[in-house]
């Protein structure tokens, strides 16, 4: 790694992060992440690639505060996640992290309208869902992702690609330190995938957001500024 200054100014940093999974039936267990260190600069787009089982998902889970490493330090926007209580970690994920998951079916809450899905992180943080600011932000983001006028509809009325675009809008709504995307194009046709990637790219280029994306898809990875390759739990 990287100098101390790089780590301090990074949107995301991992210092010697390992994640071991316990032994089962007398086996030796698995080291899914092995002393991984990296600093992701603010305003950059990073793709994490590597063969199946190389540790990409574990990297993302630990980096995003969805899982706790066995050892090492993860910082988001300079905050060390290690000492945080579960409640504080949940708040940090809600307020300072955006997520776009693999399956569009898992990304959106089916019982909420499209615009309610977009502003959900703001509402969970205490904003008034009927407040003028919240409604305007929802509309602005839906326009941005090409879905103006669809806000009152339900997610099931959208195609998979459109639903992923709503997920990107929701990931942007809190202006998070880092947006984590886990195989965001996995279930999409090439055209829909390109639209989703262009939105993530613009979030970086236009808004200065930071995106970290796990992908198997070389076309998706080609949109990133930096490609990190995992192999056997390590960064190559
Ligand atoms: N909950 C778990 N319990 C035990 N082992 C696990 C667990 N999760 C992952 N592993 C193991 O950790 C290693 C890394 O898995 P991980 O899912 O991070 O890889 P990946 O690169 O994301 O794979 P894929 O591309 O197939 O999703 C693998 O050997 C996997 O079997």
Which features does this protein show?
236 residues, alpha/beta, Rossmann fold, six-stranded mixed beta sheet, 10 strands, globular, binds adenosine-5'-triphosphate, ABC_transporter-like_CS, ATP binding
Strand order of the largest sheet: 6-7-8-3-9-10
The domain count comes to 1
Number of continuous helical runs: 9
Molecular shape: globular
Question: Total strand count, please?
Answer: 10
Computed structural class: alpha/beta
- Give the CATH topology: Rossmann fold
CATH superfamily (homologous) name: P-loop containing nucleotide triphosphate hydrolases
What is the CATH domain class?
A: Alpha Beta
Helices and strands, in N-to-C order? HEEEHEEHEHHHHEHEHEE
Bound molecules: adenosine-5'-triphosphate
**End-to-end CA span:** 13 Å
Secondary structure: helix percent: 25-40%
Tell me about the largest β-sheet.
6 strands, mixed
List segments where confidence is low: pLDDT < 50 over at least 5 consecutive residues. Answer: none
Q: Do you know the CATH architecture? A: 3-Layer(aba) Sandwich
Strand content: 15-25%
What integer is the average pLDDT? Answer: 92
Integer-rounded radius of gyration: 18 Å
Organism: Streptomyces clavifer
InterPro entries: AAA+_ATPase, ABC_transporter-like_ATP-bd, ABC_transporter-like_CS, ABC_transpr_LolD-like, MacB-like_ATP-bd, P-loop_NTPase
Domain ABC transporter: 12-236
GO molecular function: ATP binding
């Amino acid at each position: 790694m990287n100098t101390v200054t790089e780590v301090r100014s990074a949107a995301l940093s991992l210092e010697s992060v390992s994640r071991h999974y316990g032994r089962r039936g007398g086996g030796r267990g698995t080291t899914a992440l092995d002393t991984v260190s990296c600093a992701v600069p603010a305003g950059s787009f990073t793709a994490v690639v590597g063969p199946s089982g190389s540790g990409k998902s574990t990297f993302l889970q630990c980096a995003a505060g969805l899982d706790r490493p066995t050892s090492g330090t993860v910082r988001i926007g300079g905050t060390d996640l290690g000492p945080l209580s579960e409640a504080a970690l949940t708040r940090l994920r809600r307020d300072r992290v955006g997520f776009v998951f693999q399956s569009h079916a898992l990304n959106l809450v089916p019982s909420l309208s499209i615009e309610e899905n977009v502003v959900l992180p703001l509402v969970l943080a205490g904003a008034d869902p009927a407040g003028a600011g919240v409604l305007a932000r929802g509309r602005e983001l839906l326009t941005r992702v090409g879905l103006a006028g669809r806000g009152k509809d339900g997610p099931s009325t959208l195609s998979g690609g459109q639903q992923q675009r709503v997920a990107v809008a929701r990931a942007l709504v809190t202006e998070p330190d880092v947006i984590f995307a886990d195989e965001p194009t996995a279930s999409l046709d090439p055209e829909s995938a390109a639209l989703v990637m262009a939105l993530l790219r613009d979030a970086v280029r236009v808004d200065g957001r930071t995106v970290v994306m796990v992908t198997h898809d070389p076309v998706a990875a080609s949109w990133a500024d930096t490609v990190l390759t995992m192999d056997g739990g390590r960064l190559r």
